[in-house]
């Protein structure tokens, strides 16, 4: 029922060729921090003792203009914003429990940011009322969550601070957000190729596509090379086939599974492999994951180094592996066994989690997305395992 559901989107009314401008929004309809600083909120902003980030300025603006109702210039736009969102802050606590652990943790961090933002804007609006700049103003956590979600899911990345950010904007976060009415109806596809820029002659923000479209096709833009956990966290959706999705492998598991296939001496000496890992980490190993393309290079090279004999390691040969040198046959065989064990272990857990979420009777969109994430993880691990097994050296006859 939820398959490929994208909500509202934009459709091509004629065929579109590579290089065509698909949307062009005049600068007076772009909502940036500069617009907020010139708005009716400007007098409060000038004397409020705490600087607000560009994102919070946009939230304050949207909340304020929404309260003004039909008298707001922005009422037609605000009236078109969704009433609710499908990001984790709209999940019930039970739904949150079913999310993959790493995503759940990121969602908790996001909730903390949201509460922090709410507390800052509560003080801001109270201050505005005390100073009699704002009258009859009421706003609660739900209003803030709504505004924060609208800003987070609909802003474009747009560098407004060409001449340096305004002194009233909190510089702890970059001033790169813009709400662009109408343009924000464009949905995301990881295969869409677009470029956005400000056309200073026409004074419009334009998006040019490299991807062609037929008449009546849905036209997409690209929100960034995000995996599905990030898309769910930041935008409240998942893509059915997302080339950016990966399964992260923990550092502890890389060490544990390497230790199991290593020489007794190394595996029994508890701190040997963690120390090795620390040294390679210091050289810049961060993407320890696997994807539909197989284990990441960082995962492979770290396993190769952890699975090296102590003598070779002692001679400093591990540095060569980081530079692309081939490991010895013995090391390679151990490293392959370790990666297979990791994948089998992760796959078994993914199968169990997948079955657990599938057994829950729910037709909510939140649940649908959780199921998609679990199935995707299982699929990536299965495909990755197949690839690793395919490269198993054949037995000598
Ligand atoms: C910038 S808005 C796009 C317009 C939106 N669909 C609407 O109805 O207003 C971004 C939101 O659209 C939805 N969305 C965008 N791309 C999507 C996709 N490929 N699949 C499902 N939902 C998508 C998500 O809810 C996201 O937060």
3D structure, described in words:
48% of the residues lie in helices and 9% in strands. With 397 residues, the chain is mostly helical. The chain folds into two domains: 226 residues, set domain protein methyltransferase, domain 1 (Alpha-Beta Complex); 144 residues, set domain protein methyltransferase, domain 2 (Alpha-Beta Complex), CATH 3.90.1420. The chain has a three-stranded mixed β-sheet with strand order 1-8-5, with no helix packed on it. A three-stranded antiparallel β-sheet has the order 2-7-6, with no helix packed on it. The longest helix has 30 residues. The structure holds S-adenosylmethionine. The site of S-adenosylmethionine (SAM) has 18 residues, from helix 7 and strand 5.
Tags for this entry?
397 residues; mainly alpha; set domain protein methyltransferase, domain 1; set domain protein methyltransferase, domain 2; 2 domains; three-stranded mixed sheet; three-stranded antiparallel sheet; 48% helix; elongated; binds S-adenosylmethionine; SETD4_SET
Q: Beta-strand level of the residues, as a percent range?
A: 5-15%
Q: Based on CA inertia axes, which overall geometry fits? A: elongated
Q: What is the CA–CA distance across the termini?
A: 54 Å
What is the fold named in CATH at topology level of the largest domain? Answer: set domain protein methyltransferase, domain 1
Small-molecule binders: S-adenosylmethionine
Major sheet characteristics? 3 strands, mixed
* Number of beta strands: 11
**Helix proportion:** 40-55%
Strand order of the largest sheet: 1-8-5
Radius of gyration: 26 Å
Mean pLDDT: 92
CATH homologous superfamily designation of the largest domain: set domain protein methyltransferase, domain 1
- The unreliable regions are none
Helices, by number, come to 16
How many separate domains make up the residues? 2
| Order of helical and strand elements | EEHHHHHHHEEEEEEHEHHHEEHHHHH
CATH class descriptor of the largest domain: Alpha Beta
Q: What is the level-2 CATH architecture name of the largest domain?
A: Alpha-Beta Complex
Q: What structural category do the secondary elements indicate?
A: mainly alpha
